Predict the structure.
Amino acid sequence: MIEFQDGKCHFSLRVAGVLRRCGHLLVQRVPEGMILPGGRIEMLEQSRSALSREMWEELGVHVEIGRMLWIVENVFDYQGAHVHQHLMIYEMSTADEIAVQRMRAEKMTWWPMEQIRRSTLFPEFLRTAVVEIPNAVEHVCLR
């Protein structure tokens, strides 16, 4: 995976996907709230391939990777470290059913879209952005 540490500074390259079904969004629970499912990109791996691999590893489903929605430069503090994260977010779809036991193991859940704006989804801009998907790729810088 592509990540570097320099003292109290941490850089990571991550990919995530927006998978919506029946008025719900697939999210992964983390201690602070929720994030979109995905993971870190490995060396020499393209972002689309990384997202496909991560979804297979975590949920055992093949996903279709759609268009890129956001490129996010996210700088934040986490557990006493300064984090600089580059995040690429794509649309995803799948015809496969996702097994409930796999979802529980990976702390995934289907979250109702009508509750997303009031949720603890991170990065925070996604709380409104995933409700109204952009027509073109958006570059988002957060600090």
Notes: The chain has one domain: 3-142.
